[in-house]
Amino acid sequence: MIHSTKRTDVRERLRRRGTFQWIHALVVVLSIGLTLFAWNYSRQQLQSKIQIQFDREVERVVGLVIERMQKYEEALLAAAAFLEVDEREIEKDRWRNYVDQIDIGERYPGINGLGVVLAVPRDQHDSFVKTQRRMHPEFRIYPEHDQPTLWPITQIVPEGPNAAAIGLDMAHEDNRREAATKARDTGLSQVTGPIILVQDEQRTPGFLFFTPFYELDFDSKAELRSVEERQQHFQGLVYAPFLVRNLMRGTMEKEKRSLGIRIRDGSDVLFDEHNESEPAFDPDPMLTKEVTIPVYGRLWTFDVWSDLSFRRNATSSQPQTILWAGLLIDSLLIGMFLSISRASRRALKMADEMTRGLQSVSLATKANRIGIWDYNPVDGSLQWDDAMFDLYGAQRENFSGAFDAWNERVHPDDREQASAAVEKALLGDTNLDIMFRVIHPDGSIRYLGGQAVVFRDESGKAVRMLGANTDLTEQMKMVDERRHHLREIARANVDLKRSNDELAQFAYVASHDLQAPLRRIVSLSDLLREELGDSLSGDAKMFMGQIESSAVSMRDLIRDLLSYSHIESEKRPLVRCDVQSIVTAAVEQLSEVIAECDGDVKCDALPSVEADPQQLSQLFQNLIGNSLKYRGDSPARVHVSGETFDDRIEYTVADNGIGIAPEHRGRVFGVFKRLHAESEYQGNGIGLAICKRIVDRLGGRIWIDDSKLGGAAFHISIPINVDSEVSDSR
């Protein structure tokens, strides 16, 4: 199967094979080069990862500060709205009650208090002071200044730590006056420049947060569009004093971040952790970043440095490990090349032993249509047995017994590869183990496998190659079909998992982001109902009820969507669950509904199962609640039972309700699938979808059948041995 080669050429090749040649040196050099490349690439990837981690941490820290300021603004806006709709004089007790109700200490950590600043013309100074002294006997406006309008603080809660601020005139100092004036003229919340609060004994940097409120004419419904209109109707400011150190402490504790922060307002430093007294201070930080953002009329600059905890978390020995491992592999390569010559002599001895073994199985190969061939690399002669001629579709009389005779029958696309494999085996680089195609005289193509051993003399020269060919055509067809099916299955699984992950993430994020405006709607609705009270007309009360009802429906829908998306995302471990106790607890949760409809829920002894306890409780509570909701005219009757089979446990929740028609039983488990109008039965059509998703995670199934009680029967089948890996992948 190979061209004859002169004896001197073969011997020279074998001699070179036993020495360290240039090709070996090239392999070692290339290996060292790849090692250095991998080391440098790993080092760059590590640096990129550290940079991404630092940037993400910076965004989080700055985002938390801005988010906290936005929450503070919400408190100020709500207080301003309270004062605008309440036309009575701002009294001390009423203001304290309002601030106590919104609980600023708990809801808005970092805030020093919530107060009121009123605009007072200078010519009304005496009468105004006299009025205020009814609430604050020692009230006075200070310090003196020459501005035409006075802006004194009249209320502040809590008053104890902020008592020194009562009567302080915002107009006496540029930072306070400019921010207050800007808030009045724009109608927007404003932050002052850095100031020292009169109530701060430590004299640390602070600022005031202003939100204006106006005298509104609700009858005319006029909007204050111009600066002149806002100045004309301006009453005062709701304000909150802040110490920047308290703001940062309320926003994010130092132990929960690995960065040091300095906040500047222009050239003034508001907050600074870049000093050696800080526990995790790094004098030579790995990374730094400066971020400037607008904050309610001011520009704050955040100078962010990595600290020692960041350095510890970012340290990795991976690049050094790759470098040393690569150098070790290079050393092993050199040792391997040096051992090749010794291995060739041992291979000759093993080949002789294998020859005797091959000769002993000659009869067996004939019976199994295994073709045997014998090649002499010295004179180039090739011998085939009868099975070889059948495999190649050739006739003995037309076979010349040389390399070309075999080569002509190999598929043109496989000739070079097959010849190179034979040459490589003769040189001792590897054993012969190849697969190639041959073309029969009728044009059909067959796949053949070829294996052989090489026999050598004492000098290491190849003197014989003995091998066998087998027909692999049918096996290759099966392998190709299997490979095709596996690729299709793998592609479908990847697409399905990506689609499910994206849908679950979308449902969670969308539902989560909808809650903030919903809470605002409910809060404002409650505030309007409380403030306006009996002054609401009949239509207004109806509209207010519709707003509250819609908000509740939206809240329930969001909660159910979050529950639906959490089923897969939480992936809590499965444990052995006492189903009897879980169903009993579910019935207790529904006790008010059961009493309201004069219902009766009976429960047989239930077998335990491997599951998520929280999700299993949600499953039975949804199914029992569904039976109570769709109860019809008769009092609701629900029966929960369970039965153990060889490979599964089956639970049944049966009722005497209105039932479900057979043609609708499959689609009721879809998201938002309802069979009745909301005016007939309340709900959002997601409860049964949650049930199906819970059962799917356990590798089970859920279906609906007719109930012996006259309504519907929900059947849940769960395998006895739930594969945790399967459940986690669902």
From TrEMBL:
It is an enzyme of class 2 (transferase). Residues 432-484 form the PAC domain. Its EC number is 2.7.13.3. It comes from Rhodopirellula sallentina SM41. It catalyses: ATP + protein L-histidine = ADP + protein N-phospho-L-histidine. One of its GO terms (cellular component) is membrane. Residues 141-303 form the CHASE domain. The keyword Hydrolase does not apply. Its main location: membrane. PANTHER family: PAC DOMAIN-CONTAINING PROTEIN (PTHR43304:SF1), PHYTOCHROME-LIKE PROTEIN CPH1 (PTHR43304). The chain crosses the membrane at residues 21-41. Keywords: Kinase, Membrane, Phosphoprotein, Transferase, Transmembrane, Transmembrane helix. It is found in: Membrane. Residues 384-429 form the PAS domain. GO terms for molecular function: phosphorelay sensor kinase activity. The keyword Membrane applies. This is histidine kinase.
